[in-house]
Amino acid sequence: MKSIHSRLLLMLLGFIIVPYFLTIFLIYAYTKNSVEEYELNNSKMQLEKNAEDLQQYFDDMVNLPYILYRNPDLFRIFTEEFEDSIYFDQDSVEKSIETFYLTRNEIRQLRFYLDEGKESFTVYNATVSTRKPQPELLNQEHIKQLFKSNKNYLIEPPHVIKNYNNAAIIPESDRTKVLSIHHKIKEVPSDKFLGIMTMDISLGEYSKIVSNLAGENGSSAYLLNDQNEIMYATNTSLIGKRVPADLQSRIQKGTTDKEISLTKTLNGPVEGWKLVKKTPSDVLFRDVRKTATINIIVGLGVGLLGLLMISFISYKISRPIRELSEKVRRIEGGHIEIPFEKGRQDEIGHLERHIKDMTDRINLHINREYKLEIENRRNQFRALKSQVNPHFLFNALQSIGAVALRSKSPQVYGLITSLSKMMRYSMQANQWMSVQNEVDYMKAYLNLQQARFGKELHYSLEFSDEVLESRIPSMTLQPLVENFFKHVYEEGYYEAQLTVTGEVKGDSLYLVVKNNDGPEITASDLEHLQENIYRSTSEGTPVNEHIGLKNIYQRLILNYGTRADFLVDQPNGQGFSVTIVIPKELSDEPTV
């Protein structure tokens, strides 16, 4: 006959450990297959949708130059002498050119080549350049390809924007990457070649379509033309280059054990182009494997702990009296919190229940006396704390101000008055206040800073009456004003202008604190600042980094949830601005 110890071990293995691990492996296999199937189907549908969007986008852009044929003023530039067309209606021609330039936001530059006079001119920033002879233009590589082609257009891979005519209207600092669409202009119906119009468009619009395909799960996306050149890639360093050999090999192999690869060949104006999405398998199944690993580790721990517990109970079950005696000795030593078995029905169980009742009565008596002692100490602490109250400090400041006034020191009195206003307001830091109260607090703070620096501060506070009557969590705007002095004024930018505005747009209240000068902030610094503000503390953000901005953001989220926006930016590449967007009315009880 098997022992209790061995039977318990077999039961644990047979009814707990084996089914537990078997369930984990089955769930992992099923989840892995489900995730793979879902991801494949989802990726295929998304690939089809993005391919249609790309075809439609390039169809719109390729057909855009046909507007020229419907505009007599523009088309006359190609069919007649340029001077004659300008002579007849110069304003109308320039207006038509500017209107065409502004047709799409992504158009960065236009070039018009007139074959009649072998001249060309450009349009940049809605400004028309002077005409210059350019007889060698038809010998340029992509123009030559277009001229010899049966098609009316040619799409040149992305490149840095060029100053085609060395026109002064294009700054040297503009290093924007653009995609060029060259379009033949012909006479209808003779099909006579009249010239070429080139559109330089930014990559922003169609890059969004390709980037959306990649998503945020570690996937990469590529748009390749029929010449095996990269028109766009999530790895922006590859844009405009030929497809590397290793990437070409991976695309040809398709889906492997290491990555899932999907390819879609495009039609329409981009016939022969390919849209490719590649997703690493380890990224796709990372969460599934992590969950399975954790479950296995927990299962091993639970199994090991179970074995130890069963072994301990089986060996000690024959010595209950010794255990009871040990518990009594521990009680004698002052250890009151001793665990007792409740379900035991033999004599040992009867003794344990009586001992437990006795220890419970002792614990109740001790707890009652202990809590009374703690409450007495708390009352003593409250009495001591109430002797030093913020109201005492506020009244003391008022007394000092009165002495300063009697001593004919109005400036000191004014500063003390400003400080006392700030103290009175800070006593209500956990309350909701009107924007008018917040503005008064800022004015008192600015008055103190004026006396501190001894220089003229450049600031403006602009709020409508409707905004001033609105209620917001206290201490929302003042920390932003304090940041201005900490990061701008104290750094020596004394000519910086601080502007605090508030306005109502629809059902939202817009509060903006900005300055027009200060330390330079790079794009990466700004991105890092935004990440630290919006990231929760549990994700690893240092407690002392950008704590002021982060506290304001967290308080807004606490009170308004997703209805609040907190935006930091560097307008026009200089200065700094913070925009707070919150609902104008709040029906719930504020949290602050």
From TrEMBL:
It is a multi-pass membrane protein. The chain crosses the membrane at residues 7-30, 294-315. Its main location: membrane. Residues 315-367 form the HAMP domain. InterPro entries: Bact_2-comp_sensor_kinase, HAMP_dom, HATPase_C_sf, HATPase_dom, Sig_transdc_His_kin_internal. Keywords: ATP-binding, Cell membrane, Kinase, Membrane, Nucleotide-binding, Phosphoprotein, Transferase, Transmembrane, Transmembrane helix, Two-component regulatory system. It is found in: Cell membrane. It comes from the Bacteria. The keyword Transferase applies. PROSITE patterns: HAMP. One of its GO terms (molecular function) is kinase activity. This is Histidine kinase.
